[in-house]
Amino acid sequence: MQAAALPQLREELAVHVGPTGADGAPTWTLHDPLRNQFFRLTWAAFEVLSRWHLGDAAAVARAVEAETTLRLDEEDVDGVVEFLAQSQLLKPDGPRDVARLLAIHDSQKTAWYTWILHHYLFFRVPLVRPNRMLDAVLPHLAWLGSRAFRLATLAALVAGLFLVGRQWSAFAATLVDHFSMEGLAAFGVALGLAKIVHELGHAFTAKAFGVRVPTMGVAFLVLMPVLYTDVNEAWKLPSRRKRLLIGAAGILAELTLAAWATLAWGLLPDGMARSMAFTLAATTWISSLAINLSPFMRFDGYFLAMDALDQPNLHPRSFALARWHLREVLFKLGEPVPEHLPAATRSGMIVFAWAVWVYRLVLFLGIAVLVYHFFIKALGILLFAVEMGWFVARPFLQEFAQWKKRAAAIRASRRSRLSLGLALGFVLLAVVPWSGRVSAPALLKAAEHVSLYAPAAAVLGTVEVAAGAQVAAGAVLARLDNPDLLHRLDQVERRIAVLRYELASVAFEESFRGRSRAIASEMEATLAERAALLRDQERLVLAAPIAGTVTDLSPLVQPGQWISPREPILALRAGAVIEAYVAEDDLSRIQVGGRGRFIPEGSGEARAATIAAIDHSAVKALSDPELAVPFGGAIPARFDAKSLVPDTAVYRVRLDLDGTIAQPIRGTVHLEGERQSWLGRVFKAAAAVVVREWGM
């Protein structure tokens, strides 16, 4: 029986020598110039293509076995034919090939809404064809790639970091000062400049290695403009090192800019130039290290990782392995592994796939929230739904569809029963209201707190109590002296004595008789002055206004010292109370009379308490700064007009308990509340957002 003839290859295809594989085997790169796509060829595939002219699969397989150390059969050659057909690299010959191409074309057709969705998420706008310009400019910029410039940049980096380290407080203060509309605008301009330098780094490095750069332009990722440079032809290079340098050129260009800008900030005096250098340095450092080096998105870091690890198509291959591994863990279907790799490599790719999924889930949730808030309400809701549906829900639905196709095998697997049981357990944990406990940051402090001050500048005479002593209301706590007050009182007493003598002499002394009324009036004023001075003297004896415990008695305050009226001498605390701050979502679950338990921070004995009062309006400013995040607490808050304003809505709850407390203690209070499931809380929060945003 005569073997079927091999189909014809497209004439414009080109094959280039590729890098050596990780296993030491040679590779080749097949270029489709019409679509500007590249395909990695293994040694076996290259040998098959080299003998394609033999005409049939059997002849090709025999020739490969005879002329190389490879062992192939007709099925291996048919596999190459299938790869070429699926990649549209064969010349159509006859109705069957035309039907195959039409089927591929039809499978790629999408509805108009799908087309809009794809192009809203990502599309490119080519702006320039820079190939000739790069050829003309490259000789003038060749010095940027010289060894001398690289060493100079390294020296600038070391010097810049040294200067920043010496002036770190000024650098950090400048960073904080840039969080304004003007600072954000400057960051935007600097980011644009850095990205232009980034793309030119790719382009000039590619030209230096003889690679054509057909286009440069702007790509829109979720309507966010991002510059791009087409350096796909770098795949023609057989040297992996050169491809790595082209892929890393953008990051290296930005880091070079950051190094020199950092040095400029350290050397320049304060002014506009130094501010511009700081903005450029901070922007390029953040852009290069936090964004471009990430392998989780298809940025430079991803392509560098592929070249460095020699793992083409890293994302789709790792995703396929992770999905296969997930199904094996959950159902143990015994399906063949998508590709055979060393155990360590396969495990690493699976872990990498999960890391990408988690990263993208967080990123896309953030993008969904941003598009919701930055667009008008109706469009924002639509875009939010698109982001959540396409990026978050769609991958789950696609995997569930694969499970549906394998429903029979899944039902027959014993492992699936265990997985189903665990899934039901998680559902029960989410649906059943297991716990009614409401936790909130709290402060245990005295119910009454009084600080005692000197009524005026005075000398501390004696302190009648010790720290921690229990005193009754009205008990003497300290005695003060005021020499000036005593001197004035002595003068007043002498004046009163003189005035009494003059009044007593009115009957027999004519000079006193004429001014008797004046003497009587002066006597009245002097007696009033003495009464005031005596009251001031009585105030120098500090008595307890309430019954309580003596606290805050400073050991530095000693008898004989002058005391300022603004300096507290001691304090009295009586009783104990807990002030907790409950989140808005939990407020409806608690009520007055409910029980609670205070757990002190660190170590200490838990104390039982009862809810005495619940505020009906959110706290505008925290009266207890110890509970705010800036002071080590748990409530996110910011300073606004010298007040600590909570970032989220919290409500103050007062709890009574027995005993007294000498010093405030920070901790957490657990309150008994209405039982509510985790899923119920999620639905309640979502409903609250819908009601708030739609104005219901």
From TrEMBL:
Residues 187-263 form the Peptidase M50 domain. Its main location: membrane. One of its GO terms (cellular component) is membrane. One of its GO terms (biological process) is membrane protein intracellular domain proteolysis. It is a multi-pass membrane protein. GO terms for molecular function: metalloendopeptidase activity. Keywords: Membrane, Transmembrane, Transmembrane helix. Gene3D superfamilies: 2.40.50.100. Pfam families: Peptidase_M50 (PF02163). It comes from the Bacteria. The chain crosses the membrane at residues 147-164, 176-197, 209-231, 243-267, 273-293, 350-372, 378-397, 418-436. Its cofactor is Zn(2+). It is found in: Endomembrane system. Belongs to the peptidase M50B family. PANTHER family: MEMBRANE-BOUND TRANSCRIPTION FACTOR SITE-2 PROTEASE, PROTEASE M50 MEMBRANE-BOUND TRANSCRIPTION FACTOR SITE 2 PROTEASE. This is Peptidase M50 domain-containing protein. It comes from Paramagnetospirillum marisnigri.
